[in-house]
């Protein structure tokens, strides 16, 4: 997963629900120095009996916001969605010659 | 040269004195640990089953020399020996960060131990460990520990079936029982992704409190102040702790979420504290029972007394009125 262009990540999930698996795996895909490099990561843990679905909100460097319903997606689908915009940003960066 | 297959059917009918077995030449390096089968002319008697494995190494379902099997065995022993296990998810924590988190954890636990040693309680700090686990193998080991009872049904089934029943956790029988997906331990949804566990040899709320305040600080379990413990606020420790998430706990076979874990950690004074609370409560019950029994007679007394006062007032009033 391309994480260079992510600036803000908000995750909420109930660890006891099987559908929160991809939200948790998404957090494990972030590089170890993500927070040190200025990415804001907020993860909110819901109590065990809450029925609220798992949610993932992402902000990109160009300001685009992406809200995903991760409880209905597999982790590969989540990375696909995120990478789709990241690749556009990567191409723009490359064309700008930086 | 004797015939290769020594068939002597008469020996089955008439037992004759056993001739000494001919000495055959063999190499010591080819000798195996298994007992050789008795000669065929002795097979009309009871023959003990040939044991094809050393008694200390009963056969396992998966190849026993692999890392997977050994980890499985190790996790089973961990789950059986620790009544309190905290489950954490770790997201790409660096080795330096692990090292500093472990250092802070041991320091905090040593401090708790030093406090408890004054009351003569044993030290636990060296036995409380934070370790990263292989999630799939841990999940499988948990199923074996929860659902495989080595003692149950062994004797009865052994009498029915000729084959030997193994009672160890990596046996084929344990695997078959644990692979029944209908049985649920309640911890399954937690067991995915990168996991780490903190295992306690006993349920000790004081130590749990120390661990929670170090690994997942919250208003109930505040982290040590910067002045008290500057090492805790170093970059490595804080960077690592941000990537460590408390998921839940397994306390004496029951599954607890984050709130439940905090509740266990907030038990004041551990098991002794609970006992003191119980004694206090029972004393309170005695007192309230006495006052309740007393209450009826006392209220009657008050009623009669107030009635008397009332009548006296009326009498006085009547006298004044005259």
Describe this structure in words.
The complex is a heterodimer of chains A (98) and B (322). Chain A has one domain (6-96): Glutaredoxin. Chain A is built from two helices and four strands; from the N terminus they run βαβββα. Chain A has helices spanning 21-28, 75-96; strands at 6-13, 40-45, 55-60, 65-68. The relative contact order of chain A is 0.26. With 322 residues, chain B is an alpha+beta fold. Chain B folds into two domains: 67-267, Ribosomal protein L10, N-terminal RNA-binding domain (Alpha-Beta Plaits, 2-Layer Sandwich), CATH 3.30.70.1730; 269-317. Chain B is built from ten helices and five strands; from the N terminus they run ααβαβαααβααββαα. Chain B has helices spanning 10-13, 67-81, 95-117, 135-147, 154-160, 172-178, 205-215, 235-242, 258-265, 270-321, and strands spanning 84-90, 129-133, 195-200, 244-251, 254-256. A five-stranded antiparallel β-sheet of chain B has the order 2-3-1-4-5. The N and C termini of chain B lie far apart (149 Å). The mean pLDDT of chain B is 81.
Note the topology.
The complex is a heterodimer of chains A (98) and B (322).
Chain A: E1 6-13, H1 21-28, E2 40-45, E3 55-60, E4 65-68, H2 75-96
Parallel strand pairs in A: 1-2
Antiparallel strand pairs in A: 1-3, 3-4
Chain B: H1 10-13, H2 67-81, E1 84-90, H3 95-117, E2 129-133, H4 135-147, H5 154-160, H6 172-178, E3 195-200, H7 205-215, H8 235-242, E4 244-251, E5 254-256, H9 258-265, H10 270-321
Antiparallel strand pairs in B: 1-3, 1-4, 2-3, 4-5
């Amino acid at each position: 997963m391309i994480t260079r262009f992510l600036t803000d990540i908000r995750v909420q999930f109930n660890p006891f629900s099987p559908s929160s698996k991809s939200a948790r795996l998404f957090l494990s895909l972030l590089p170890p120095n993500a927070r040190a490099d200025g990415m804001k990561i907020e993860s909110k843990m819901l109590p065990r009996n809450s029925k609220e679905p798992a949610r993932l909100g992402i902000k990109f460097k160009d300001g685009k916001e992406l809200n995903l319903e991760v409880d209905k997606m597999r982790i590969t689908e989540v990375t696909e969605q995120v990478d789709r915009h990241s690749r556009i940003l990567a191409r723009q960066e490359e064309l700008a010659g930086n | 040269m004797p015939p290769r297959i020594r068939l002597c059917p008469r020996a089955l009918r008439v037992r004759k004195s056993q001739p000494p077995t001919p000495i055959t030449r063999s190499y010591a390096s080819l000798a195996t640990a298994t007992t050789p089968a008795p000669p065929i002319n002795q097979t009309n008697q009871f023959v003990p089953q040939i044991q094809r494995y050393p008694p200390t190494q009963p056969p396992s379902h998966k190849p026993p020399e692999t890392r997977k099997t050994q980890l499985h065995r190790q996790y089973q022993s961990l789950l059986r020996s620790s009544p309190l296990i905290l489950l954490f998810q770790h997201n790409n924590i660096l080795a330096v960060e692990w090292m500093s988190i472990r250092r802070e954890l041991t320091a905090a636990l040593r401090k708790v131990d030093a406090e408890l040693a004054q009351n003569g309680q044993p030290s636990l700090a060296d036995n409380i460990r934070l370790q990263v686990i292989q999630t799939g193998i841990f999940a499988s080991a948990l199923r074996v520990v929860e659902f495989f009872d080595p003692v149950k049904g062994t004797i009865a089934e052994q009498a029915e079936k000729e084959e030997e029943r193994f009672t160890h956790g990596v046996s084929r029988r344990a695997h078959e029982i644990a692979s029944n997906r209908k049985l649920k331990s309640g911890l399954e949804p937690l067991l995915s992704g990168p996991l780490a566990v903190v295992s306690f040899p006993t349920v000790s709320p004081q130590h749990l409190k120390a661990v929670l305040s170090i690994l997942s600080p919250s208003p109930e379990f505040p982290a040590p102040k910067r002045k008290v413990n500057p090492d805790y606020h170093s970059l490595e420790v804080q960077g690592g702790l941000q990537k460590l998430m408390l998921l839940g706990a397994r306390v004496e076979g029951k599954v607890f979420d984050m709130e439940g874990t905090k509740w266990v950690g907030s038990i004041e004074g551990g098991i002794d504290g609970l006992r003191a609370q119980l004694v206090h409560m029972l004393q309170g019950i005695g007192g309230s029972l006495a006052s309740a029994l007393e209450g009826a007679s006392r209220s009657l007394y008050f009623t009669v007394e107030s009635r008397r006062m009332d009548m006296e007032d009326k009498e006085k009033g009547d006298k004044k009125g005259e």
